[in-house]
Amino acid sequence: MKAAQLLALIWILIPALGCAQSEPAKPEYFNQRVTDSNPLRTEQARELDEYIKTIAADRRRFEQLFQPDYSSAAAFEKAAEPLRAAFCESIGYPPPGKRPDQPATYKKIGEDSIGVYYRAMFPILPHVHSEGIFIVPRSAKGKTPLIISMHGGGGSPEVALFNGGSNYRDMVRGAVKRGFLVYAPQHLFKADGYPKDIRRQIDDRMRLIGTSITAVEIAKITYAIDELIKRPDVDASRIGMVGLSYGGYYTQVTPAIDPRIKVSVSSCYFGVQEGRYAKEELSVPSDFRFMNRMTLFNDADLVALICPRAHQIQAGSRDNASHRETGKQIAPRAAEFYERLNLSDRFEHVIFEGGHEFNDKAAWAFVEKYL
């Protein structure tokens, strides 16, 4: 090879050799420290937190779903139907399962100077009964109004009825004394031989099959009413409901679904979950955490499904502030539904002198007025 050609070849190879020496060999796979992307995960959590807060504060979905018509009471009720349908879907009502063909049973358990007491059983779902105490007042003659009297958490019809009624006062016998038929159903809060959190466990399992304990326990009331109004002594056009604490919850949601309940008194419940949610979202008990609970179905807005029927909310001045203060804040929004229909007398928000208890005086005066 001539010297000139060799020199030219050397000049060609020198840059390539230099590059080979300066560039490291490429790895088989790209790698990066996992911790390098930690800020992205932190940002994702922040974004989702802000999203939840934004949607929780946005009233537009509710306003789109419920567009009240205040031209008449009938028009208002019709306008509320989409909201009622959405609420039923949210909790899984009516619960799935064929209703049994078995008849209701009434077993006499006692009597006294004011009434006759029966253990009532109403088959409502496969293997499920609505069970409670049914009382016929001695003063009853012909068709008689019916009161559903709903106990609270950890309670029972027996606790609310016997030995003075505890903090339920006269929530059951008060109706009998006034000549009303009474059905006091039993709901699940504890059961011998089962875990202490049996209510939560049953609710979690129900959600996996398309319903909830709220829906089933509403059905324990509404399906029982279906059977009770078949009795010749029940006036189907005059049904009321009263409840304390958890029973106050059911005295919100049951009339919201069943328009046959013409008057209702919810004691020591209204606004409790809204107050808990404002302080710490996940402090709301699991059975109150149905879909859209705080965006479409808070306590004040659910009153739209009761209006124009009469509804009283009670709270004790010496009860825990959580059972009173948030209710005071949101009650005006509930009252507005009635005010705009010129029916403001049908809604009452009563702060009475007392604790976590049923206020007989205010409740029975209201019930007697509208039933």
From TrEMBL:
Sorted UniProt keywords: Signal
- The answer to whether keyword Signal applies is yes
**In the UniProt record, does the keyword Signal occur?**
yes
Q: What is the name of the protein in this document?
A: Dienelactone hydrolase domain-containing protein
Q: Kindly give the Pfam families that the UniProt entry links to this protein.
A: DLH
Instruction: Tell me the superkingdom of the source.
Output: Bacteria
Under the heading SUPFAM superfamilies, the entry gives: alpha/beta-Hydrolases
What species was this sequence derived from?
Gimesia maris
Q: Where is the signal peptide?
A: 1-20
